[in-house]
């Protein structure tokens, strides 16, 4: 009983520290769970066509209606999330790993190494994201893995820049100097003292870029360079539904809302993360 | 025999397109079991000496001359790996602001243990036991619980005790204390100074280089003292002799400007003029524009630091 109460108190503290992170995290978690398990409970397959009920509105059989081929929209949205979340997590994960490492090295060593790392990043950043992604997917191929990589390539310089900036700030802190005075090696300084202290802005950036990755995937699929039919993708569904907006508005409303909810979840998470990453706030003074 | 030997150290900073000397030709020895005070005004180069010895100078600074020997190791020629081995084990440092000298993301226990494991061959349990012992030694109440506390949960005085615990954890030969009590109030200051004296000097035979601008601190704990002015040592000797019989006009002026207790007097004495900036150092003796005894020769010739009767060293033509 006492343990439960302690656990509940701790949960309450976290909630108070950041309601927004809590809410955002919950949204993402719920989305991940229901989309990961969709094949277990969904009565429909995303490609199954019900020729008796094309463009049907929301009914008991089709909770969010059907599209022009009679495919169940709720099922397609949930499967679409799988692709969207995979692209978001994959591209941010990859961009984060490479970008953080580069930014940390550039900020820590400075000088020549900084220039060698950051100047190519500047070049990459000079391209508008969508142009770069379109060029890469158009050139290399239209598989999901290519899409993930293309978005990651856009993200690496963004992460590198944020990480470099916050490393520059932290590297001159007295506790880094102190750790150095205690004989910490370069690697130890970077990984144990600078990385955890400098990562917060990067993680916030990451959660926002997750939302943007979902939008980028949708945009790519919308213009036909991303997910290919008949695979369900939120962007593709928007694109297909566009021609039926008058007769069957649910065809665009459902995937549109779905995109918004995921992006909202990631943004809320990002806004709240900083508080939770700061131990001085966690325990309260 | 000396633990730390600084020989003709010159350190420069790059600023405005040229290299400016912050420390000029400074030499001294630190003996085992003594506290050597390094006093002077802000900007006189005393902290730069500390950072030069630790080889922790900023990127815009360099050691342009001289050598620093820690026993038989030439620190000025040591590479990164060698320095990493020495720092925290044979050579330790504590800083002015204890509140920011600890990493706020890790518990203090973690930070003590980290240093222990970096330098000594200890398993987790042994390191934890040693950390606990260290915290008790520096007088942290309820040490067992406090091991798991974060730095923000400590007061300034307690943080400095933790920093001290980390600094002494590997029983260093030399401890550099850069204004360790400046950020603390007077009672805590005395406690920390006595702690340093007891743990380092009396028990361990460590040499402490204590950097301060506070003559009261020097009188309280130091054995010998070096008085610095504008990047040079102007007077060097035992604390008693320098306080009772200061030779250099700058030391005399410094002591005169201390407020004295009890006797009601008029305005506090001060030293006219101000400390010359790095890019505008006077020729000859650097103190001559402010010196009441300045002669013509002071403007052209920098007096060397020479030993006088009584064992005190002073850099002034008055005693030639």
Largest interface, C-beta within 8 A: A-B, 24 and 32 residues
Q: How far apart are the first and last residues' alpha carbons of chain B, in Å?
A: 29 Å
Subunit arrangement of the protein: heterodimer
> What count of helical segments of chain B does DSSP give?
12
Count of DSSP strands of chain A: 0
Helicity range of the residues of chain B?
Answer: 25-40%
Average per-residue pLDDT of chain B, rounded, comes to 89
Biggest pleated sheet of chain A: none
Tell me the overall shape of chain B: globular
Number of domains of chain A: 1
- At CATH level 3, the topology of chain A is MetI-like fold
Give a verbal description of the structure:
The complex is a heterodimer of chains A (285) and B (320). Chain A is mainly alpha-helical and 285 residues long. Chain A has a single domain, classed as Orthogonal Bundle (MetI-like fold). Chain A has 13 helices and no strands. Chain A is flat, with a radius of gyration of 22 Å. By secondary structure, chain B is of the alpha/beta class. Chain B has a domain at 248-320. Chain B is 33% helix and 23% strand. Chain B is built from twelve helices and twelve strands. In chain B, the strands form two sheets. Chain B has an eight-stranded mixed sheet with strand order 6-7-8-3-9-10-12-11, sandwiched between helices. In chain B, strand 7, helix 8 and strand 8 (207-212) form a beta-alpha-beta unit. The longest helix of chain B is centred in the middle third of the chain and has 17 residues, at 186-202. Chain B is globular. The two termini of chain B are 29 Å apart. The mean pLDDT of chain B is 89. Classes of the chains: A mainly alpha (285), B alpha/beta (320). The A-B interface holds A 110-111, 173-175, 177-186, 188, 192-193, 196-197, 279-280, 283, 285 and B 54, 56, 59, 80-81, 83-89, 92-93, 95, 97, 100-105, 114-115, 118-119, 150, 152-153, 163, 166-167.
């Amino acid at each position: 009983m006492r343990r439960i109460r302690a656990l509940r108190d701790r949960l309450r503290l976290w909630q108070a520290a950041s309601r927004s992170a809590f809410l955002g995290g919950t949204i993402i978690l719920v989305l991940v769970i229901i989309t990961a398990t969709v094949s277990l409970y969904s009565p429909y397959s995303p490609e199954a066509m019900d020729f008796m009920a094309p463009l049907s509105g929301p009914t008991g059989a089709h909770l969010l209606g059907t599209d022009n081929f009679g495919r169940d929209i709720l099922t397609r949205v949930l499967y679409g999330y799988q692709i969207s979340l995979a692209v978001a997590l994959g591209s941010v994960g990859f961009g984060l790993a490479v970008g953080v490492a580069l930014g940390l090295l550039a900020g820590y060593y400075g000088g020549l190494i900084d220039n060698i790392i950051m100047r190519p990043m500047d070049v990459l950043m000079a391209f508008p994201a969508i142009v770069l992604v379109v060029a890469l997917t158009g050139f290399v191929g239209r598989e999901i893995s290519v899409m993930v990589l293309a978005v990651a390539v856009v993200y690496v310089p963004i992460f590198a820049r944020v990480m470099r900036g916050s490393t520059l700030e932290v590297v001159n802190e007295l506790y880094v100097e102190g750790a150095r005075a205690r004989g910490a090696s370069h690697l130890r300084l970077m990984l144990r003292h600078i990385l955890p202290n400098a990562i917060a802005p990067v993680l916030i950036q990451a959660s926002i870029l997750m939302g943007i990755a979902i939008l980028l995937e949708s945009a790519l699929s919308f213009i036909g360079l991303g997910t290919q039919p008949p695979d369900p993708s939120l962007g593709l569904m928007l694109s297909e539904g566009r021609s039926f907006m008058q007769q069957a508005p649910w065809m665009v409303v459902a995937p549109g809302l779905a995109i918004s909810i995921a992006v909202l979840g990631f943004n809320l998470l990002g806004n709240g993360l900083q508080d939770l990453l700061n131990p001085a706030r966690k325990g309260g003074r | 025999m000396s633990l730390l030997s600084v020989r003709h150290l010159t350190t420069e900073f790059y600023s405005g397109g040229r290299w400016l000397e912050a420390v000029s030709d400074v030499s001294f020895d630190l003996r085992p079991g003594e506290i050597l005070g390094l006093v002077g005004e802000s900007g006189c180069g005393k902290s730069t000496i500390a950072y030069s010895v630790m080889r922790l100078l900023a990127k815009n600074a360099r050691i342009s001359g001289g050598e620093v020997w820690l026993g038989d190791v030439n620190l000025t020629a040591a590479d990164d790996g060698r320095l990493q081995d020495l720092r925290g084990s044979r050579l330790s440092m504590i800083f002015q602001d204890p509140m920011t000298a600890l990493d706020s993301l890790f518990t203090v226990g973690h930070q003590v243990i980290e240093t222990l494991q970096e330098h000594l061959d200890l398993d987790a349990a042994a390191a934890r036991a040693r950390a606990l012992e260290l915290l008790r030694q520096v007088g942290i109440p309820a040490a067992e619980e406090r091991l798991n506390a974060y730095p923000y949960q400590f007061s300034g005085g307690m943080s400095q005790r933790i920093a001290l615990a980390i600094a002494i954890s590997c029983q260093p030969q030399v401890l550099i204390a850069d204004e360790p009590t400046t950020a603390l109030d007077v009672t805590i200051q005395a406690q920390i100074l006595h702690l340093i004296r007891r743990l380092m000097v009396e028990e361990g035979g460590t040499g402490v280089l204590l950097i301060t601008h506070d003559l009261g601190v020097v009188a309280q704990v130091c054995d010998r003292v070096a008085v610095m002015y504008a990047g040079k040592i102007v007077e060097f000797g035992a604390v008693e002799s320098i306080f009772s019989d200061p030779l250099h006009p700058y030391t005399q002026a410094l002591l005169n400007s201390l407020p004295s207790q009890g006797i009601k007097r008029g305005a506090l004495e001060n030293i006219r003029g101000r400390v010359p900036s790095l890019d505008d150092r006077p020729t000859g003796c650097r103190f001559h524009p402010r010196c009441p005894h300045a002669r013509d020769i002071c403007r052209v010739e920098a007096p060397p630091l020479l030993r006088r009767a009584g064992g005190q060293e002073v850099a002034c033509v008055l005693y030639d």
